[in-house]
Amino acid sequence: MTPGDHQEVLELMNRYFEGLYHADSTILRQVFHKELAYVCATDGDELFLDLDSYMLRVDDREPPAKRGDPRDEAILEIAFGSDRLARVTARMRMMGRDYLDFLTLVREGADWRIVTKVFSYLPEKD
């Protein structure tokens, strides 16, 4: 893993956060692998989707940007397992919830892609 790999993953994560904030499936399709596994691990709201099913949900939501919600996101950890495997732990607050994402990335050709998104959420505290 090189400093270039780290920078590429940071850029991918910036597009990921941007796509979620604007509910932009075009941006998100650029960061996700075509074989994405999307898993909600929140107790009582377990959900397993593929990329197209997830993008339909994104397209149907009101973007946090349109509602004027402030952006609140952070990368907590980036770990490389090899020159083709990485893991990112991220958190974000949007749509009235605090999210914790565990993202698995694989290098597809010259680009990193998110192949699994496993997450949980809690309602925001007032």
Question: Nutshell version of this structure?
Answer:
The protein is α+β, with helices and mostly antiparallel strands and 126 residues long. Helix content is 32%, strand content 45%.
Biggest sheet features: 6 strands, mixed
Estimated structural class = alpha+beta
Distance between the termini: 42 Å
Average pLDDT taken over every residue: 94
- Strands in their spatial order, largest beta sheet: 2-1-6-5-4-3
Q: Give me the number of helical elements.
A: 4
Task: Name the poorly predicted regions.
Answer: none
H/E element order: HHEEHHEEEE
Find the count of extended strands (DSSP E, 2+ residues).
6
Shape descriptor reads globular
**For this entry, what is the oligomeric state of its chains?**
single chain
Helix content estimate: 25-40%
Radius of gyration: 14 Å
How much of the sequence lies in strands comes to: over 45%
Explained architecture:
The protein is α+β, with helices and mostly antiparallel strands and 126 residues long. Helix content is 32%, strand content 45%. The chain has 4 helices and 6 strands, in the order ααββααββββ. It has a 6-stranded mixed sheet with strand order 2-1-6-5-4-3. β3 and β4 form a beta hairpin. It is globular. The protein starts with a helix and ends with a strand. InterPro entries: FrzH/put_lumazine-bd. This is Nuclear transport factor 2 family protein. It comes from Roseobacter insulae.
